Amino acid sequence: MNIAEPFIRRPIATTLIMLALVLFGSLAYRTLPVSDLPNVDFPTLLVSANLPGASPETMASSVATPLERQFSTIAGLDSMSSVNSLGTTLVTLQFALDRNIDAAAQDVQAAITQAGPRLPRDMPSPPTFRRSNPADQPIMFLGITSATQPMWVLDEYGQTQIAQRISMVKDVAQVLVFGAQTYAVRIKLDPRALASRQIASTKSSAPCGPPTSIYPPASCRGRGSVTRSKPAASC
User: Fold this and answer.
1) Bigger pLDDT: 212 or 199?
2) Residue 226 scores a pLDDT above 60
């Protein structure tokens, strides 16, 4: 006996069964739950640029603005936002869902290359980018403390040893190191000796480094205040 034989002999019953299935299927489809915040992996790239010592205003005008002008010409770009802090600029690029992330990465790399001549020459390295998902959250925090080693030694150990090893683990997307404190030279000035030699405190920071128009060479700390020297722009 063929399984389709009863349906062929009774076409009216078969038609009614099909109509019932379509009707109940349509009603059930409307009652399906819909998530208000679906888990969608948006094609997102995060571009980072560093210029040690530069103020947030300088990073916004000299680094973020040239990059954003080039990124705005990329096809399929939905939104772009930037965050500027002391010596660091982060530009978040979010593309359309139908945009291939690999092709978008190539366009971003080309835009960074084109913006290179308009970026400050004092940047230690060109801007870099990586794939990022705004919905991702950190799953582990590690703290490094020592009673004998200074903070800059712990920072170097975390950057060169721990962060690099963890980044090589499979499925690890990003490793960030916070609380960094690099080695710095501190010069203490004697106000009486400066006054006797008629030397201003702002002139004492000149030997600390070559002055540039992008970032100051030194900072002067007083009682409850920090004064950052501002060298004149070179012609």
Assistant:
1) 199
2) no
Q: How far apart are CA 211 and CA 217, in angstroms?
A: 6
Burial class of residue 229 (count of CB atoms within 10 Å of its CB; 0-12, 13-18, 19+): middle
Residue carrying the six token digits 């009682």 = 223
Asked if 117 and 30 touch (Cβ cutoff 8 Å), the reply is no
User: What's the whole-model pTM score?
Assistant: 0.55
Q: What is the pLDDT of residue 191?
A: 81
Residue-wise pLDDT for 3-17, tens only, equals 788 878 888 888 999
Per-residue CA distances from 108 to 68, 124, 131 (Å):
11, 20, 11
Q: What is the Cα–Cα distance from 113 to 127, expressed in whole angstroms? A: 9
Per-residue pLDDT at 233? 39
CA 109/CA 174 separation, integer angstroms: 19
The percent of residues above 70 in pLDDT, for the chain, comes to 77
pLDDT at 225: 46
Give the integer Cα–Cα distance in Å for 216 and 206: 10
Q: Tell me the C-alpha to C-alpha distance, in Å, between residue 137 and each of 78, 102, 166, 173, 174.
A: 22, 23, 16, 11, 10
